Amino acid sequence: MDLYTHIEGQDKEVFNALKGEETREREGIELIPSENYVSKAVREAQGSIFTNKYSEGYPGKRYYGGQEFTDQVETLAIERAKELFGAKYANVQTHSGANANIAMYMALLQPGDTVLGMDLSHGGHLTHGHPVTYITKFFNFVRYKMKDVETGEIDYDEMRRVAIEAKPKIVLAGFSAYSRELDYEKFVSIAREVGAYAVIDIAHIAGLIAGKAAKNPFDYGFDVMTSTTHKTLRGPRGGLILTRESEEIAKKVDKAVFPGLQGGPLMHVIAGKAVAFGEALQPQFKTYAAQVIKNAKAMEEVFRARNVRMLAGGTSNHLILADVFGSLGIPGKEAEKLLDSVGITLNKNVIADDTRSPMDPSGIRFGTPAITTRGFKEKESARVAELMLDALAAKDEPAKLEAIHQEIKDLCAKFPIPDSFV
After folding, report:
1. Residue whose C-alpha is closest to residue 259's, from 62, 60, 52, 53
2. In angstroms, rounded to a whole number, what is the distance separating the alpha carbons of residues 62 and 79?
3. CA 394 centroid distance within chain
4. For 71-92, how does the pLDDT look when each residue is reduced to its tens digit (9 = 90+)?
5. Nearest CA to 105 among 252, 208, 5?
6. What is the C-alpha to C-alpha distance for residues 183 and 286, in angstroms, rounded to an integer?
7. What pLDDT shows up at residue 4?
8. 363 assigned to some structural domain
């Protein structure tokens, strides 16, 4: 059934925007590492009757009546999330990854407490303590960086020194633009030495962890994991908080989410999460997660062969951060706009210690979750990387850019967005 049948007859302006976005996604290459395609089953759940229902509280402990089926679907989402990540407790109500991080801080900290997190310019996230966010008015954030931006090695000795000096209550791992694996043992060791919680934001790599293509931080002793449910996990846009084993922490998390931070949960989104978690539990999701990394490595090889500098020297996960200004003389903003014009979507991004502004930085960030969902393998991924660099080289040649755009459309036609993953 067409999901837009009623909208078309009722609201042509919204319908046109929806169909326009559908065409853009169908005919273009999506390389933003934090974006993906969901199955039609997830979309149906998110557009379902559950959007009508208010469900403040948690399963079995609601403030309103009529909760038989909301309890069923939220419990399914909780149990599936626990199974995916080896957690004893899960909160599936947070509306976003940012909300998940804020709720985690509220659960574990008192105003004025300190958090040790990754510097934004070295790959961290805004919610890990960037000064523009309001959470920095309540908590003190200190930062760690890469020791060597060419290899991606974190300066763990400096991290330990800062932790001993600043005495953080949370040692926070995780990132939004970092392409290597972290040394989980060192994070947990430093946290234990200073009496801090060991927490990790797995928003970007949740699907790789769930699909057994990346290490599970819980296996190394992390106390809490926060995440989004989209990106590599391929679910609806939303948040997730997982507690390894502490019932005390889990209770604090639940209270921080509701009533501390949010009102009623978005039950239609939770239904979508339940469906997506069920998909991620299927054997084929492991194949998908492994292919995401293989495809990123294929793109890395092209960029290396064409002498384009990659932060951390390349990738061990799903994303690449490339210094296009330093290598090609093209600012990230210009590269993003040019590639968008030929049907390749990615985002401009600061690089480590960037001398340019965040709105016009030196780098671009791109990744392989969405193209892997479409069925791209190493050959197609490498070709996309070649087309990216060909387009940047031909920025003043309209005929070549048009030919590249047509090849991208043809490639997308061969690999349509799938309706189902099971």
Report:
1. 62
2. 18
3. 31
4. 999 999 999 999 999 999 999 9
5. 252
6. 23
7. 87
8. yes
Q: What is the 3-state secondary structure (H, E, C) of 307-355?
A: CCCEHHHCCCCCEEEEEHHHHHCCCHHHHHHHHHHCCEECEEECCCCCC
- Domain presence at residue 37: no
**CATH code, domain with 115:** 3.40.640.10
Name residue 238's amino acid: G
Q: How far apart are CA 328 and CA 82, in angstroms?
A: 45
Cβ proximity of 33 and 207 under 8 Å: no
Q: How confident is the model at residue 2 (pLDDT cuts 50, 70, 90)?
A: low
Q: Residue 36 domain-assigned?
A: no
Q: Is the pLDDT of residue 307 over 50?
A: yes
Residue 329 is part of a domain; what is its CATH number?
3.90.1150.10
Stated pTM of the model:
0.97
Instruction: Give the domain extent around 344.
Output: 288-414
Which residues are catalytic, by number? 54, 56, 201, 228, 231, 237
Q: How many domains does the chain have?
A: 2
Is 229 within a domain? Answer: yes
Pair (184, 141) in one structural domain: yes
Residues 245 and 324 in one domain: no
Tell me the angle at which helices 398-414 and 332-341 cross, rounded to the nearest 10 degrees: 60
